[in-house]
Amino acid sequence: MEAFETYQTPLSSRYASKEMAHLFSPANRFFTWRKLWLNLAIAEKELGLPITDEAIAQMQDNLHLTAEQFEVAAQEEKKRRHDVMAHVHTFGTVAPAAAGIIHLGATSCYVTESVSCMHLILNGVECFQTVTPTSYFLRTGLDYLIRSLSILISRLSTFAAQYRALPTLGFTHFQPAQLTTVGKRATLWIQELLWDLRNLKRARDDLGFRGVKGTTGTQASFLTLFDGDHEKVEALDKRVTQLSGFEYAYPVTSQTYSRKIDIDVLAPLASLGATAHKLATDIRLLANLKEIEEPFESTQIGSSAMAYKRNPMRSERVCSLARHLMVLHQNALMTSAVQWFERTLDDSANRRVTLPEAFLTADIVLSTLQNISEGLVVYPKVIARRIAQELPFMATENVIMAIVKKGGDRQEAHEKIRVLSHEAAHQVKQLGLENDLIERIRADAYFDPIKPELDELLQPESFIGRAPEQVDAFLKDWVEPALADKDIQEAISKSAKVELSV
């Protein structure tokens, strides 16, 4: 069965989690078809159609396909040119008592709106099989992503707590600004991830089931089956929805559910891509500054030519895949916009690629970010050196205020500091020397009243404001409640470190 278990894309075969890859596998696809046919048969039997207990039992006993059944289905599809009918026939060969009632009253979209398949051929080579997920697959995929995202948030929260009070140079416009802390910067990443977690949960909880609606959504075939009994048709729709694990079915559909559902699901995935790209870009910039680096194995090679290099390859991979993830949402928008009347088929091939790729890509982005978060390396001495280069300029306001407190004139102090700052800037920018502003202040008699206080005025910790307290409050008031769900806590406690090949 292993050959049928893997969603064979260049991404998933190497990087996707086994659960996410299995979700979009042929084995799971056709298992789900058979489960939906079983649910329909059970509900139809309960409502009075002549379906035997033996038929139900045989269907229940043969939900999983064997390799031989896959071959039978493939041969049938070549002959019939219809994937659903090929699998109806194949299911009937192992559940002969049910052969006459499998798919009774349903249209192909009853199952293909749960999952369908396409084989993509490039240059004569079968590159991957894709699956179109709908309610069940979208919901399960979102469950997986919610769990993975929660683990990532937990890992980054541990990092933020560890470095809550470590001063670091802040940047606006990628120019030196006031100090922040390493932990506080991490909370900016986490906050966006919390919003992504909220959005994924909203999308999952909003999902409904297509139900049994017939070829154009009118339920005409089922009304015929039940001899015009509208109440039984309504009961059938509700019962199949219940058996399929959903709280409600969409009240009206065409042949398909509205493609706006795909928009609602891919939007938070695209938003997650934006968050991931920003986070990974920050790490790439910090790696250039040599302040923080992603994991780098002792035997890892950064460049084939430049042996000294430590390229942030994982973060670059995240940025690359995140861009792909953000773009996929556009496909959902365009597909929804061009649905004609009760449906067209030009959505099919597009969705069969777009939807699985979105979930697989998001899964890989999250696992890569988890790997990065679990091995982030911080270099406090490099950070301290960069602070020392910039802090004298940032401390000028504190120096002026200290002079004023000693009875000095603010404007006069400002002019003194301005002149000395320009002289120090000349040393740095024109001569490539260290920032000697503090030495110049110490050498100027004007500042004698505050010279004993200079060391205290230049303590980096006095420039980080409430950053440590903000980290503490954020983790307590926002992160802990967001991760408080029992299932999420269990997933976090059981999660192992992610090992990735680079």
TrEMBL record:
SUPFAM superfamilies: L-aspartase-like. Pathway: Purine metabolism; IMP biosynthesis via de novo pathway; 5-amino-1-(5-phospho-D-ribosyl)imidazole-4-carboxamide from 5-amino-1-(5-phospho-D-ribosyl)imidazole-4-carboxylate: step 2/2; Purine metabolism; AMP biosynthesis via de novo pathway; AMP from IMP: step 2/2. SMART domains: ADSL_C (SM00998). Its EC number is 4.3.2.2. GO terms for cellular component: cytosol. One of its GO terms (biological process) is 'de novo' IMP biosynthetic process. The keyword Lyase applies. Residues 391-475 form the Adenylosuccinate lyase C-terminal domain. GO terms for molecular function: (S)-2-(5-amino-1-(5-phospho-D-ribosyl)imidazole-4-carboxamido) succinate lyase (fumarate-forming) activity; N6-(1,2-dicarboxyethyl)AMP AMP-lyase (fumarate-forming) activity. It catalyses: (2S)-2-[5-amino-1-(5-phospho-beta-D-ribosyl)imidazole-4-carboxamido]succinate = 5-amino-1-(5-phospho-beta-D-ribosyl)imidazole-4-carboxamide + fumarate; N(6)-(1,2-dicarboxyethyl)-AMP = fumarate + AMP. Belongs to the lyase 1 family. Adenylosuccinate lyase subfamily. Homotetramer. Residues from neighboring subunits contribute catalytic and substrate-binding residues to each active site. PANTHER family: ADENYLOSUCCINATE LYASE (PTHR43172). This is Adenylosuccinate lyase. It comes from Mycena venus.
